[in-house]
Every structure is written in structure tokens, then in C-alpha cells.
Amino acid sequence: MFERPHGGERAVLVRLLFDGAEDPQESAEFQQLAAAAGAERVAFITGRRSAPDSRLFAGSGKAAEISDAAQQGDAKLVIFDHALSPSQERNLEAFLQCRVIDRTGLILDIFAQRARSFEGKLQVELAQLRHLSTRLVRGWTHLERQRGGIGLRGPGETQLETDRRLLADRIRQIRLRLDRVEKQREQGRRARRKANLPTVSVVGYTNAGKSTLFNTLTQSAVYAADQLFATLDPTLRRLDLPGAEPVILADTVGFISRLPHELVAAFRATLRETCEARLLLHVIDASHPDRNAVIDEVEAVLAEIGAVEIPCLQVFNKIDLTDDPPRLERDSEGQARAVWLSAATGAGLDGLMTALTERLRGEAVHGWLCLPAAAARLRSRLFSLGAVVAEQHEPSGEWLIEVRTSLGNLDLLRRKEGLREEWVRSGLQSPAL
After folding, report:
1. pLDDT at 222 over 70
2. Same structural domain, 235 and 349
3. Are residues 212 and 327 in the same domain?
4. Is 117 a member of any domain?
5. Buried b (16+ CB within 10 A) or exposed e, 112-132
6. Around Cβ 244, how many Cβ atoms within 10 Å?
7. Are residues 333 and 200 in the same domain?
8. Contacts of 186 (CB under 8 A, 6+ apart)
9. How many independent structural domains does the chain possess?
10. DSSP class of 357
11. Which of 101, 118, 135 is the last residue of a domain?
């Protein structure tokens, strides 16, 4: 058996077609994924089969072609744009005499490079360990079977079983740590719910421009680049809207076709920010040649994580790369449905702010309160909720306060903070903006 190398960025890329016509976009995306992982492509092998080979996936003839390409290009790595079974990976490595990884392993490697926060690193490691747990035997082929005979009876696959036990222990430790991180995140969510600050989650296909739009709206400095999975860790920032209550804008990891299930499971805690959002901003690359298919992929992932029922506003980004003008589209009922803009140039951002304000202010109320001096606790609560627009102190000792807040906050103030109807000077009955 060959000695597995510790590295190797020179790679042969393999993509096979089993049904339908070749999709140039999927082929280009696979090559971009490999480049994002740091692979140097020495050959790109394609082919067509009626079904995957149970032993070598690509079949013995295509495997021989891959082996020749790897030897000629001095490649130490072969990357398949498919999901391989553990036995297929093991058989291919034995046949090709080099490392073999599939699409899941490739995406996990990219995520491992991009994770920056403690939580993100734990989530990536959990996904990697779960993926590796079925592939441990590849590293211990000399222990694949217990040996019999004089002097060879005993514990059998001791090293393999030890590794499996250590792997299970590490997975348990990571899950316990992630549980603690999730409790901390839940405290933050409870605080936002208590303040009734709505969350708007930015979702979309990877490299659609989500982080660029997030930075433009919030004047933040989240890392953004023209590459797949440029950012991984979620980021939360406050966004002030004209004529509506402030919101929390959440930037999340980009989606991709055939997203590994174990990856979605490992990031379920992070994606909970999406599931609990009041509104989704679905950022779409307007210049993508097959954007409808990309939209379907994102909606499939949203359905998988249980966020498909959340109201959604489509944002068609990168119109600077197309002939589309900036505009705000509405449905038959006049509700903002889609915004066309460029996060890079700023064209159309005013339309997005208008759409956000309209979609979120349905629960907003605006008016005046006249509070007696004894209502100091209620006045303090109004400030803590960020509901005070203006205030003036009357000679009589009363506070005349201009208030803009949500119906939920108003109901909370009435039920728990003792807000009386006779203190309402005007408004605060129905949306007024």
C-alpha cells in the first residue's frame, strides 16, 4: 500500500456525467471550488456513464486515464465532483496511488480554511470528524482484518478501534462545547426578542455578493471577496431604517448546490438565525447565466433548515455587470417583492431601504405620550427599547414624548409596564407612517 502524503495541491479534477446534458456552470463552479481550496489543476477529466461503478465509481478504464493524467502532471491529489462512498475512495486510492477526496471533502476543506470564530471552527471540525468516521480504515489498511495463527492471536484491530473511540470522544466534546455556545446565542436572541428588535437575515448562493451588501448597509468591514465561501462565520449588526424601527441584520454562510447533509446539520445552530428571522433578504447574482436554477437551490436549502415559510424579499445584485436598471418591483397587491441593485456601486440601495421599511413597518406605530412624573420606570423602558424620537419636559412636571415603536412593544408596555390609555396624546393606535 502507498504511503499517504501529507500535502499536495497539484490535483486532477474529475467530473462525470450520468444523465442529461453537460452544464457549463456546474463545471465552472467545481473548478472554482477546487481553486478556492488552493488546488492547482493539472488536468480536468470528464466522461459519461450510465451509472457509477460500485468499485471504482468511474470504472477501470476511466480510472486508468485518471492515473495517467496524475502521473504526467505529478499530481498527488484527485478530486471528484461527486459523493464517493468510503469503499470507493479506498479502492480509488489503492488504484491511483494518491489521495482521493470527493465534493463533500472539498467543501469541508474550504470551510476549515475560512472558519475564524470559535464556534465556526468547532462546527467545521464536527462536520469533518463525522465525515471521517466512516473513512478511518483508509489510513490503517494493514489492520483491515484480524490475523490468525501462532503469535498473531490477540486484540486484532487495536489501533483502528482506538482511533474510533478517540474520534467518538472528540465528537462528544465538540457537541458539548457547541451546546454551551448555542446557550449563549440563545441569550442574545432572548434579549433581542425582549427588546422586540426584528432580525433580517441575508441569505443566498455563495458569491452572490451578500457580504458586500451587508457591509454597504451597515458600514461594516466583514471580509468580502470574489470567491466561493469568502466568509463563513455569521455576523450581526444593527441597521437603522428611515421611518421604521431598527433591525438586526444577519450575514450568513452562502449556500451551494449539493450542500453536504452533515454540513447543514453541523451548522444548524448558526443557521437558526435564519430560521428565526422576521424577513429574509435573498441575494441573487443578477449576472448569473442560470439564476433561476440558483434560486431553486437556495430555496431547497431553506426548506431543509425549516425557513421556507419566512417572508422573503429578493435582491438582484450585481446589475453593474448587466444591462438591468435599478428598480423596485411590486406584486399585484402593491407589496415590495424584488429589488434590483448593485452593492458595489450603490445603485438601487435607496429602493432596498424603501422596501425594507415597507415590509417591516406594518407593525410600526407612531404618536405622542404624556407621562406623569410618577411614570419614570415606563419612561426609562421606552428609552431602553429605542422607541423615543423626541422628548420635552413640561412645566407641570410631565414628559411629552414622541414615540415610534412596534405594535408588539406597545402591547408589552401596556401589559407589563403599566402604560395607560389616558397617557396617549395622539397616534399609537394603528400604523401611521
Report:
1. no
2. yes
3. yes
4. no
5. bebbeeebbbbbbbbbbbbbb
6. 22
7. yes
8. none
9. 3
10. H
11. 101
Taking 90 as the threshold, does the pLDDT of residue 145 lie above it?
no
- pTM of this prediction? 0.69
Range of the domain at 414: 363-427
- CATH code, domain with 256: 3.40.50.300
Q: Answer yes or no: are the C-beta atoms of 108 and 42 closer than 8 Å.
A: no
Q: What are phi and psi of 180, to 5 degrees?
A: -65, -40
pLDDT tens, residue by residue, 69-94: 999 999 999 999 998 998 999 999 99
User: What are the pLDDT digits (tens) for 333-380?
Assistant: 777 899 999 999 999 999 999 888 878 765 567 788 889 888 888 888
The contacts of residue 425 (CB under 8 Å, 6+ apart) are 367, 368, 369, 370, 400
- Judge whether residue 427 has pLDDT over 80: no
Cα-only R_g, the chain: 28
- Grid cell at residue 271: 443557521
The helix (H) or strand (E) run that includes residue 301 is helix 291-304
Average pLDDT, the chain: 81
Residue 96 reports pLDDT greater than 70: yes
Helix or strand run (H / E) with residue 237: strand 235-239
Total residues belonging to the chain:
433
Task: Retrieve residue 258's grid coordinates.
Answer: 449539493
Q: Tell me: pLDDT of 138 over 70.
A: no
Instruction: DSSP for 28-86, please give it.
Output: HHHHHHHHHTT-EEEEEEEEE-SS-BTTTBS-HHHHHHHHHHHHHTT-SEEEESSPPPH
